[in-house]
Amino acid sequence: MMYKFLMSVYKEMLLLKRDFGGLVILFVMPLVLIVTITLIQDSTFKSVNESRIPILLVDHDNGNISKTVKENLNESGSFEIVTKIDGATVTEASAKEAVFKGKYQLAIVIPEKLSADLQLKVNQNVGKIVSQLGLEDTTSVVKEKVVVKSKEVKLYFDPATQLTFKNAVKSAIDKMISQIETQSIYSTFQDQLGEGDEPIFEQESFITFKEIVPKVNDKEILPNSVQHNVPAWALFAIFFIVVPLSINIVKEKGQGTQIRLITNPVPYAVIIAGKTATYLMICMIQFFLMVAVGVYLFPYLGLPVLDVDGKLLLMSIVALFSGLAAIGFGILLGTIAKTQEQSAPFGATSVVILAAIGGVWVPVFAMPKIMQYVSHISPMNWGLNAFYDVLLRNGNIVEILPEINLLLLFFIITITIAIGYDKKKRAV
Amino acid sequence: MNEPIIHISELYKKYKDADDFSVNNLSLSIEKNEIFGLLGPNGAGKTTLISMLCGLVKPTAGKFTISGLSYDKNATQIKKTIGVVPQEYALYPTLTARENLRYFGSMYGLKGKELHRKVDEALDHLGLLKFADKKIETFSGGMKRRVNLIAGILHQPSVLFLDEPTVGVDVQSKNVIIDYLKELNSKGTTIIYTSHHLTEAQDFCTKIAIIDRGKIYAEGTPDGLIHGTPHAHNLEDVFISLTGKELRDDV
């Protein structure tokens, strides 16, 4: 039986070797995919954090607040303030038009008298408090109370702007305005209560935060886009083995070779084992190529290096079991499908769906509640979690065992169904 | 009289959703070392009958044995002793003739020098040795048919099932195939064969059964069938006399 198994492996390898185009797709396309996706994601990350995004600023205030907003935006290093388009000063209407046409991602419109009105409002509030505390300056002139209407800073976003970017900008501007208000309040108190130039309020934040990152051997583990992307897209590529594998099985039906195999004195399990071993080798070669790209090529492309120091063995185990799960699915699909027109589109689409619900594109925690539950049925989610356990959470073999077991169980179930289905279809 | 190597008793096959039985209460005995021709119009039930005998399709009812064994208990044993040459070119197009044959031979347990020798001998016998390392996809129809035949006989089966082995091939290839089959038969292989080539069947077969609508209409030697049918000069006359002239198109 071992001899028949080895001959089946040899035959499968010959078939793959003769299909040069197929081999190129199997090995080169995942590499192209992983480099492209990581470059895109890394450049998006850089566009938010390193290079400056031009934004339109319409300043009707021309006061302290608009000055502070401009200074903060400049100091953030993320934005380049644009106040003129084609030599003309930007108005609210021209800013709105330019942004809605997608020429700029964002326009900020600061309303008229914002600084003055804020100061007036703060003065009124502080004066009221000081008066209630009996600390009122008896020499000050009683002013007539003026009603100050609330103000709006308008933000115009390009409709194509991603929600995450919108939320980040809104949050940053909200924080900036809160700081200005706070400083204004402190300064007004200082003016009304302080004597001389001695500050009576410390204006630095009392509460700050510090991110504590895990350490291994006193070395901090800092996740980067590569640590996230390589395992995620490596899994995606591994699962795409479903397409050529299912086509391979469907072809055997069409060519009639399956008839010969059925009438040969060899169990279907041996044929399946031959395919499994061959395609598992392909999966592992794919995986090691992708890791090699992360380790050796990415630094030359200006991307962070994939740190696999002391983790390669565990990562290989995760890749091996993920490959088994993918192969089980491919064999089941190939056994059930009658034509390549059924197996190829279904295989490709189902892999994309499994990737989507598995958290390859959008992290599971960011999904709606129902989809977070659904994500647990995707073998890609199990594989991805196991990779993250190893790469980002410094997990050991015991910690990845639950995911490994699930992947193995998936393989066993799919293969059992495939063999059962085939047996039912076979006569004897 | 030789002992029957295949014994079929009241065999039925009705496919799912089909209106009629493809094989309908068919009983037949095929003797050892015969070249047995199953002839009939399209949809007569020939391929279904052969498929059941090869273990590809399960009977709806009835029994049959091959060398006294049934698939219920001895499937692997039967598969070791039979050879199957399907109507399709059941070969991997991107593999060479030698690679295909070594792979299929190995599935019967042939290995090493014995496997290599048998493959090369058969290729040589059928005039294909110089093309042994060419891919099947570059072969003509006749060449593919010959490789297809070799893949079914490498393990020297005692019973060989052939489903239209000469369909779509030129006269030269057909003669080589028929001569090789006669040689195999002379060495002890029983051959069960279906064909639409009635002249070929008349010359090749030692016994013939004419099958239609899943039943056997006549059975005997080619000469016996011709002489037993009024006004028949050849097997085609017998065939038309028994199965009629109407078209047998069906979907």
TrEMBL record, chain A:
Keyword Cytoplasm: no
InterPro entries: ABC-2_transporter_component, ABC2_TM, ABC2_TM_bact-type
Transmembrane segments: 20-40, 230-250, 279-301, 313-334, 346-366, 400-421
Membrane-topology descriptor: Multi-pass membrane protein
Keyword annotations of the record: Cell membrane, Membrane, Transmembrane, Transmembrane helix, Transport
Keyword RNA-binding among UniProt keywords: no
Location relative to the cell: Cell membrane
GO MF terms held by the record: ABC-type transporter activity
Annotated ranges, domain ABC transmembrane type-2: 190-425
One GO CC annotation: plasma membrane
Family recorded in the similarity comment: Belongs to the ABC-2 integral membrane protein family.
Designated name of the protein: ABC-2 type transport system permease protein
TrEMBL record, chain B:
GO molecular function: ATP binding; ATP hydrolysis activity
Location of the ABC transporter domain: 6-238
Lineage: superkingdom: Bacteria
Signal peptide: none
Keyword Electron transport listed: no
Keywords: ATP-binding, Nucleotide-binding
Record-linked Pfam families: ABC_tran
Record PROSITE patterns: ABC_TRANSPORTER_1, ABC_TRANSPORTER_2
PANTHER family per the UniProt record, alphabetical: LINEARMYCIN RESISTANCE ATP-BINDING PROTEIN LNRL
Protein name per the record: ABC-2 type transport system ATP-binding protein
UniProt source species: Flavobacterium cauense R2A-7
